[in-house]
Amino acid sequence: MGHTSRREFIRQGSLGTAGMLLASGLVNSSFASSFISRTPAILGGTPLWTAASWVKWPMWVQSEDEKIVIDSIRSGVWSRAKLVDEFEAKWAAAIGTKRCLTVSNGTNALITAINQFDIGAGDEVITTPYTFIASVQAILANNAMPVFADIDPATYQIDPAKLESKITKRTKAILVVHILGLPADMDKIMAIAKKHNLIVIEDACQAHLAEYENKRVGSIGNAGCFSFQNSKNLPIGEGGAIVSNNDKFIDNCFAAHNLGYAYGTSTGAVAGDSFMKASKIRLTEYAAAIGLAQIKRLESQTATRHENARYLASMLKEIDGITPIKLYDKVTQGAYHLYSFRYDPAKFKGLSRAKFLEALRKEGLPASGGYKVMHTQEFMRNALNSRVYKGFYDKKMLDFENYKQRNNCPENEKLCSDAVWFTQNVLLGSRQDMEGIATVIKNISKNADKI
Hints:
Layout: H1 6-12, H2 15-24, H3 29-32, H4 62-75, H5 82-95, E1 99-103, H6 106-116, E2 124-127, H7 133-141, E3 145-148, H8 160-163, E4 171-177, H9 186-196, E5 199-203, E6 211-212, E7 215-216, E8 223-227, E9 240-244, H10 247-257, H11 285-316, E10 322-324, E11 331-333, E12 338-343, H12 353-362, E13 367-368, H13 378-384, H14 387-392, H15 395-398, H16 400-406, H17 410-418, E14 419-423, H18 431-446
Helix pairs in contact: 2-18, 4-11, 5-11, 6-7, 11-18
């Protein structure tokens, strides 16, 4: 467990945590009974971890990874070519879709997918308020109106029970975000979409290899979008992908990412006629080479994250004031780009979330409070005040105060104030690290009145 040996960890452990762990049957009695009281790092104790204790991210294994990247650079073929094609074929196979198109980043994957379903000015797209800003900016980039349906407080995903009431005659699509790398309730969402003839785009930018009923997310809706940004579970630096079983859709996405030149047209020279308004957001060969190196580890890393998350949740749920995130019954694998739980200060003697997070960080845990409320931010006011929105939406829809009221999501606001996140590389630690996290949190609870 990093710089702290197991023997030292046991020597420093908390009797309170020992009892909790022993009672739950999650660790053996010799380990649990060896805990004695320790001082939390925020009160002057020795941190259990350092930054070097956790898996460095992104991971790079020199002996295994460098040849393909060096060969791609030495080749002088740096624009889209065979390596991009190879990565696309492997990613489509990994997700279980017929086709894949790579683009420059996950945001542009979302923008392109929305655009190629002919969603634009005057249309509405329903999405979750608990997401990274790129999900919403992709809707705005197409001059469509983001409409927010509140979340399920247990899973943090868009709540299907809140979704249908948001549908209007303007609604064209549901942008489902598998936030934190955990699948949304896809059966109910797809049933609602079918009933109202809506497109479903899966924002799986955090959900590489997550599974709902043994299907990889991204393969369930009309299309799926992924990000390969540096923090993601499959990191390239920057990069994204669109997956689908719809050949015509992917062909059009290809043209959209290639200045309007049709699928099959050379990307190295102007050939034939461009047939659509488009951009140029192609992936490079050396980026694809990095992706091909990283993809080899993704299956095993995903399984490790999933199992460690289950083990950690089994311990955290025993701590009063900590509520681990839940999975829907049909989720067969979580990607856990982030691990999260809800924190109740009242059960920690009034210790604020900010001080709780500080106490975790002092122990060497990379912890944060996650997202802020989205729809009240100034970028939304800016969009509603733009010329194109004024041309396609009525004045009442564009009134910012009215917009905020219409899109008020109280469950999301609560979550934004009490969520705690750990980064995905924490879940690549050992089972002893997971036990250490539970120990640290229990010990903070025990000493909360002193912090």
